[in-house]
UniProtKB/TrEMBL annotation:
SUPFAM superfamilies: Putative DNA-binding domain
Signal peptide: none
Protein source organism: Nocardia suismassiliense
Domain HTH merR-type: from-to ranges: 1-68
Keyword field contains Repressor: yes
One Pfam family matching this protein: MerR_1
UniProt keyword Coiled coil, yes or no: yes
TM helices/strands, residue ranges: none
Top-level lineage group: Bacteria
Name under which the protein is recorded: MerR family transcriptional regulator
């Protein structure tokens, strides 16, 4: 299938599909005229890429996971590389959540201080 058809079937722009190719996530063949031709499973692969991006994985992470990839339904198989990448992202997410909670606590104090300082008639 050509890039336009893949874009229609996945609701992903052709520009983004080209970006996925540049990042080593999609591997189209080229016909004699130089047009990209994607395999029948490309829509499923694009769907997996989108799901992994939505889960917070980077394109670099996804590229690292591709050797562990599973067919039909699952994101990836368990292999040393996949465990390492997913655990690292999970840890990063825990750290971000902790930082957001710290910021919220500080902002809560400031918010209370501002509210306490407001005149009663406002």
């Amino acid at each position: 299938m050509l890039i336009g058809e893949l874009a229609r079937r996945t609701a992903v722009s052709t520009r983004l599909l080209r970006y996925y190719e540049e990042q080593g996530l999609l591997y189209p063949q080229r016909d004699s005229l130089g047009y990209r031709s994607y395999a029948d499973d490309a829509p499923e692969r694009v769907g997996r890429i989108r799901a992994m991006l939505a889960a917070g994985l980077s394109t670099e992470d996804i590229r690292g996971l591709l050797p562990c990839e599973m067919d039909h339904g699952a994101w990836i198989q368990s292999c040393d590389k996949s465990v390492q990448i997913v655990e690292s992202r999970y840890s990063d997410l825990d750290n971000k959540i902790a930082e957001l909670e710290r910021q919220r606590a500080l902002l809560t104090v400031q918010r209370a201080s501002i509210r306490d300082a407001m005149p009663a008639d406002q």
